[in-house]
Specification:
Blueprint: H1 5-16, H2 19-24, E1 26-34, E2 37-40, H3 42-56, E3 59-68, E4 71-79, E5 87-96, E6 99-105
Parallel strand pairs: 1-6
Antiparallel strand pairs: 1-2, 3-4, 4-5, 5-6
Organism: Thalassospira profundimaris
Protein name: SnoaL-like domain-containing protein
Domain SnoaL-like: 7-103
Length: 106
């Protein structure tokens, strides 16, 4: 699957539950949008990710990736402890200088 390295690393960190690796791939002022909330900066992103892992114990497995300009969209099968498990979600990423500057889960 053709994805920028930072996006590949995001899913590897997610699958390996590696918060340190995950935090390293975001720019210092990155923004994550999920469940109607935005999280800005690596500390907030780390806290969001850890809280989501604790709540849902989820793992996202990419099944398709598309790039349109500077936006990368990855469709992933997400398994965890939530209703209708598993679900298919779309993740979008903007990457600049090898770091994720914005990410969202749709």
């Amino acid at each position: 699957m053709d994805m920028p390295n930072a996006v590949k690393t995001y899913f590897s960190a997610d699958q390996g539950q590696n918060a340190e690796l995950l935090t390293d791939i975001f720019s210092s002022n990155a923004i994550v949008h999920d469940e109607g909330e935005s999280h800005t900066g690596t500390d907030a992103i780390r806290a969001w990710w850890l809280a989501a892992k604790a709540k849902y114990n989820h793992v996202a497995e990419p099944i398709e990736a598309n790039t349109n300009g500077d936006r990368v969209t990855v469709r992933a099968k997400v398994s965890g402890t939530f209703p209708n498990n598993p679900v298919t979600l779309d993740y979008f990423f903007h990457v600049k200088n090898g770091k994720i500057t914005e990410m969202g889960v749709e």
